[in-house]
Amino acid sequence: MSGDERTYVLGGEFRKRSLFTGVSGRQVALLGAFVVVWVLALIATRSLVVLVLGVVVILAGVGISRRRTQLGDSWMGAVGDRAAFTAGNRGGAPDYVPGQSLPREVGEVRMLAYAPPSAPQAPMAIIHHRDHKRRAWASGHLTVCFEIQGAGDGLLPVRQTNTAGLLFERLLGGLASAEIPVDQLDIATRVLPVHPAAYQEHMSGLVVPGTPERLRQSMDELASYAAGNAEEYRSFATLRIPLPHLRAAAAMGPMDLEAVCEETFGLVGEVVRRVDTAGYRLRTVLGPKRLAALIRHMHDPDHPLDSLDGIDTLSDGFNFLRYRGRDSVRIEGTVRDWFHAVAHIPRDAWPADTIGARWMENLVTQVSPATIRTVVSQFRLVPKVRARQIARIGLTYDTASSRSAKKKSQISTGETEASMTAARRTLNDLMRPVVSGVYPAVRVMVSAPDSRQLLAARKLVTGSAESGGVTRLGWETYGHHKAMATCLPLARGVKA
Description:
alpha+beta; 12-stranded antiparallel β-sheet
């Protein structure tokens, strides 16, 4: 592997393609103007043809306004969130009250615990998500979460970082193959500030007996300087397994949950082996209580991440009153309230220049002072044939736009040409055997005990992202309660 740092091209998708994005404000304005003209024409003509034509166009417009982007955003959904916020906040009532059901955005799920005969005391948590579109469990999907040990990429020399990047490419390519029934991999890094006293105690424990006094004093001084901004990092990987694909790959007959759990256990073992080969060591596969404790901790950071006190079922992870807001969602914690805000990197805000493998260091490790946050990288795995089709459509669209601009003698801004280059690069990469399609998404959730600290944390995270080449972060508005579900270990938020 070369000693020169490998570079990547993430940007280039600057086009506003109607085939891949949600409705724009201009389209909504045109629909409104059409409605006004249609009403006037209907009053003037009183024609049945005009009536039917108008109804058809309006229904089509409503359908377009409900169209979602790859990250699940839609114009109609944003309007609904704002209307629900305006109506629900009049009396200051909570948006979610713990009870018989989980939050609406989580949907209908059931916990399956499977323990292999060799380790009956260590069950694996498998969450079965119902397919709400078809209203069936059999066509739903499963999710499994396991904790991994970071590979220390930030401390590795360039040559090893290049190797790690290549191994991760092969990991995604292997998981996207038809033999592995996995269609999404999420890797979340939970960043927590470390108490200065705890950090100094940790550093003191690293000084072995017999260390010269001058070196010991230097270590203590260094620990005192760094203690105020020390952070702890915990990484978790979540697999999304389509149940129909799993059953087809295993040639299973009628729906049998025990057989499904057994097959899932074998699949997770194969994925963990591939993840280990890519350089990420397994710490543990989360059981039902550990998974619920992780979800509870993300809602209320005052609960330690590994504490199982008060945890019996998955619903205990959501056992908090929740109040939605415009710029955050407030959780009524056990000791104090917590405010959370969620952002994502829009597709046209990814770094446009060539970047290195460590470009996300700014979001993960370069936020100062220390801020509670979760950085989630989501990889929606796309089969190679489908990925080629998407790239061809994008290239065709951009080529048509470029030729149309030339015929009209319009001055190009370079965005269409950059997008065409990205599509061609994708098609070339897909010719390699180890490469498959992937649709990436990056989300950041920040947490603070009051709204002012949350606002400061948002500014810190935004500044760190911009330092890494991201042109902007898309912070949610009125929809933080929904976006928070995409940061939980449930593999949500990226459309196939």
